[in-house]
Specification:
alpha/beta; three-stranded antiparallel beta sheet; globular; binds 2-acetamido-2-deoxy-beta-D-glucopyranose; signal; repeat
Length: 560
């Protein structure tokens, strides 16, 4: 079999995924079906044959989902969530009682990874900071040869038509195209496409046709990569796309969505990313009773203007929502109360949540209590302030058992949250503000992979019984911890060292308890009235060299 693969890694991996767990008769069948070629480029040809064999070995539903991925160009980082919602919109996911469509789609995605048809990508693959240690797979890539294969097949079957280079500019789109993907500087301005059910634009330079020329569109993705001239005019006639399930807008220069969006009765996914001029969302979104995913977010947060507060009253209507991501929510809306009505929520992300009274915090906790399916809670900035002496005596919110990710950065410490290894056994990513005395408990979460703790004191001890922190790979904190117990799998560590005079040397001896440590980032706080950042870093560098070794480190200066 190895010989058949001609040493080509992709062929070997694909072959292995094809054969694992199959009876020997199947092996001979594969062996006999893949012939040796005598051509010069026989490895390429053989790899192609192996890939094709693996493709036809997939169940039918997976073949469809894989073929659909020919809408993406080479080297493209495909976002998992967006892909799965497109599959849902296209009707590729077969319903099963009691399981959400997204979850079934996620299973398909994992099966394609398992068959080596797509390559998984972790979040933030390029900067291995703490977020790089999420073992949550957020995307994938397709090997060029797999892409080449599915593009040929998709073209043969008139399944997808992809226009990804300028040579095809003059291409006249056939009237029977069913799914169209466009990049580069193609011009479709005067094209009419009554049969197209999926229209994906992955460049900001494409000249778009009028939406009035589509009649059966289910997926509309204007997902250009840079800020574009695409503005409100490209959304004219949006309300006529009554079959639309998926609407994805990126880098579109709009301040408002057309209110006709309320007419899209079947819409399931609405995403607006990096639409930096966006000021408000129309009330009519409240009519989208099928909406399962609403995301308004940005990679470049600093460029954003604020969404108006009062614009969120409609959210209580969206009772089918499974995922909600918003930028900035503040107390004047009824948001925290309405949140409790969204009982299907699996994932809640808010960049900045501002609650100014004790009673609102109580409402917030009561609402969260009603979200019994929630798995991810990610609040970037949780800002709260209590009025006068009216301290509301809180029990603390206890998240449900299936919680996997909890990020809550409070501006002020002290808001309790009830978590424990027995209450939330699957918790794998945690970011919280805590009391130094409570740090020990985190060693007992069996699935914890990343941990970020803001602690109320500079120097504190991280202890842990034998077997503590079994899976922890990344730890970040705003203090100077001393590791008294072993963290057997920790690879990444980020902490703060404060240098107030040049004669007091920090002691990094306890890092010896981190046997797998690979990378350390230290934020050096220094007294800038007395000396400069380089002098402070020298002190830290010297201390590191005289301590345990085996890892790379990076120092960042910070005035105080
Ligand atoms: C590869 O296969 C194709 C057709 O399947 C054939 O035409 C070609 O000669 C083969 N060899 C090379 C080197 O491409
Ligand atoms: C992947 O394949 C292996 C071997 O067939 C199987 O044991 C495993 O359960 C599969 N995992 C998923 C997520 O499908
Ligand atoms: C965005 O639209 C505004 C007015 O609608 C215009 O002034 C501005 O130049 C546009 N920006 C880009 C990048 O096209
Ligand atoms: C909420 O839903 C009700 C009933 O479907 C509808 O009458 C109302 O207009 C909706 N509210 C908003 C703000 O869209
Ligand atoms: C959130 O909105 C409030 C009120 O509109 C504004 O004052 C605040 O600066 C915004 N916060 C962020 C982080 O954008
Ligand atoms: C924890 O995760 C496992 C594997 O995904 C799952 O089978 C189990 O039901 C989860 N436990 C809880 C309490 O959600």
């Amino acid at each position: 079999m190895l010989h058949k693969c001609g040493g080509a890694p992709l062929a070997i991996i694909t072959m292995a995924s094809l054969l694992v767990g199959r009876p020997v008769e199947f092996w001979s069948k594969v062996y006999n079906s893949i012939g040796f070629g005598n051509e010069d480029n026989k490895d390429v040809n053989n790899t192609r044959k192996i890939l094709l064999f693996s493709y036809y070995d997939l169940p039918c539903y997976l073949r469809t989902c894989l073929l659909y991925m020919s809408i993406y160009p080479e080297e493209h980082l495909i976002e998992k969530d967006s892909l799965i919602w497109k599959w849902v919109a296209e009707g590729f996911i077969h319903e099963e009682a009691g399981v959400g469509l997204y979850e079934i789609g996620e299973r398909y995605f994992n099966e394609l990874i398992n068959k080596s048809m797509i390559q998984p990508v972790d979040s933030h693959p390029y900067d291995r900071t703490i977020t790089g240690y999420y073992d949550i797979i957020t995307g994938c890539r397709i090997h060029d040869m797999v892409l080449d294969m599915i593009c040929r097949l998709a073209k043969q079957e008139n399944f997808v038509t992809a226009l990804y280079n300028n040579e095809q500019q003059a291409y006249t789109v056939h009237h029977n195209v069913r799914r169209l993907a466009v990049g580069d500087k193609n011009c479709l301005a005067n094209t009419c496409m009554p049969q197209v059910r999926s229209f994906n634009v992955l460049s900001s330079d494409v000249k778009l046709p009028s939406l009035s020329c589509f009649q059966v569109l289910r997926v509309l993705a204007l997902e250009g990569d840079t800020s574009s001239e695409h503005d409100t005019t490209c959304l004219e006639h949006l309300g006529k796309l009554v079959h639309l399930r998926y609407l994805g807008l990126r880098n579109i220069n709009i301040s408002e969505l057309p209110k006709e969006i309320g007419d899209l009765k079947f819409l399931q996914m609405l995403e607006m990313k990096d639409c930096n001029k966006l000021l408000k969302l129309p009330q009519s979104i409240g009519q989208l009773s099928q909406l399962k995913c609403l995301r308004v977010y940005a990679d470049r947060f600093s460029m954003l203007q604020c969404l108006e507060d009062t614009a969120l009253d409609w959210i209580r209507n969206l009772t089918s929502l499974e995922e909600l991501c918003l930028l900035n929510v503040s107390e004047s809306s009824n948001f925290v109360n309405d949140l409790g009505k969204l009982t299907e929520l699996r994932k809640l992300c808010i960049v900045s949540l501002r609650l100014k009274s004790a009673s609102l915090i109580k409402d917030w906790e009561e609402s969260l209590d009603k979200l019994q399916k929630i798995q991810v809670i990610d609040i970037g900035w949780f800002i709260y302030k209590e009025e006068g002496d009216a301290t509301y005596c809180r029990e603390g919110y206890a998240p449900p058992r299936q919680l996997r990710v909890l990020h809550m950065q409070y501006k002020q410490p002290g808001l309790p949250i009830k978590i424990s290894p027995s209450l939330q056994p699957n918790l794998s990513h945690l970011s919280l503000q805590v009391n130094a005395l409570d740090v020990e408990i985190f060693g007992r979460f069996p699935e914890l992979v990343t941990l970020q703790l803001d602690v109320n004191t500079y120097h504190y001890d991280v202890t842990g019984a034998p077997g503590a922190f079994p899976k922890l790979r990344a730890f970040k904190t705003d203090g100077t911890p001393r590791f008294l117990g072993v963290m057997p799998n920790l690879e990444y560590l980020e902490f703060v060292v404060s240098i107030m005079d040049l004669n007091t040397k920090p002691d990094f001896g306890s890092l010896v308890n981190l046997p797998m440590l690979q990378r350390v980032v230290i934020l050096v706080w220094y007294n800038f009235n007395e000396f400069d950042s380089e002098e402070a870093k020298d002190v830290v560098r010297e201390a590191i060299f005289s301590g345990p070794s085996g890892f790379t480190f990076e120092l960042k200066g910070w005035q105080c």
